[in-house]
Design goal:
Length: 231
Amino acid sequence: MIKVDDIDFYYGSSQILYNVSLNAEDNEITCLMGSNGVGKTSLLKFLSGIYPVNKGNYYFDRSDVTNTNSYTLAKKGIGYVPQGRLIFPLLSVKENLETGFACLDKEEHFIPDKIFELFPVLKQMIGRRGGDLSGGQQQQLAIARALISKPKMLLMDEPTEGIQPNIIQQIGEVIKYLKSDQGMTIFLVEQYFDFAFDLADHIYVMKRGRIIKDVRKDSLNKSDFKKEISI
């Protein structure tokens, strides 16, 4: 679904990513692990069209989309759940969800029932302001907003950050459902090792802006791998 070849990214005069190459296969969950500040979010912002890169190529669904803007990538089928959720605090839950209509044709401007089946709390709070929701509820809203755009590929940046365990479990079940029942491809950036490992089909590990491991999960022993990467 996505293929990244040898990209470099600079923020001002500082190089953040070095010769990064990776693939995310159709209908798989690909996880990128690594500690804070190693470049994971910068990579995801590039994949979502927020940041341009200085070198390398990016292919989505077999088309070269290098340095394509976010709106065009969303139209092509890339959804993005940013770190920190970034919902609109003064808009209602319904209005937040409706922002996902931006890249859809007018006849698709409705909230599917499936959104409320996946996240029942959002239906209960449909008229509440986004800023009044708990952190876990805001995370569910951010995921639901991304799903409104009907993505083929869902990029998720630290969806468990600051979230209570029962919501983490629910988010994990939603991710499994999106893969198994909806055929969605998911690229997950995550530091919570157990959550990421249990979901992943393929794992990359990043350190100081470089990919240092590229492995299939089924080839790994969980406890040994956890000790090895020390996340």
